[in-house]
Amino acid sequence: MIRFLTNILTSIYNIFANMLRKLISSPRNRHSDPLSSTSLDLAYLTPNLIVMSTPASTFPKNLWRNPTEDVRRFLNANHGDEWKIWSLRGEANDYLDRDLHDRGSYPPSHIPLLSILSCLRLLSVVEHFGWPDHHPPPFEYIQPLLTSIHNHLLSSDQATAILHCKGTPSPSTHKPNS
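Request: output the structure for the sequence above.
Response:
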C-alpha cells in the first residue's frame, strides 16, 4: 500500500514539475530527447556545442530548472563519456559538481589508486568561469575559457562542450545535422 501511494505521489510530482518547467521555458521549445526520455531547456549550437540553463539538484529549484539527473542521463545517452560542462555563472551553482559525476564507468572506490583516478576524473566534469549575471565576462577570463573549450573539443571527434549560465539558452532547440 505504501509503495502504491509513493508511486502515485511521485507521478503527481513529475507531472507538476514538467508542467512548471514548460511554463517557465516558454515560449521557447524544450529539447525533448527520446533516447534518454528527457525534456531539457537547452539548445545545440553545433553538434558538439550545447548551451543550457543552469542545472539544479535540490527541491524546489529542480522543479523549474534542468534537474541534474536528467542532464546527466541526456549527456550520457547522447554523448557517452566525452562531455564536459563549463559553468559561466558567477553566483553559487544550484548543484554540486559531484551531482554530474556519474559519467561513463568508474572503478571501484575501495581500491585507493583507482579511487584517486576517479576523483581526478570528477574534477574534469565541470569547469567554473563565472562572472556576475547580466555583465560581460572580464577580459582575463576569455582566453582561458576559450582555450579550455577548444582543447576539450580537439581531444576527440565526439567531444562535446556544454555551457551554462543562470539564464536560459536561445529559442532554437533543434539538434543540427552532424
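The beta strands are 31-33, 38-40, 42-46, 49-53, 55-56, 66-67, 83-89, 126-131, 160-165.
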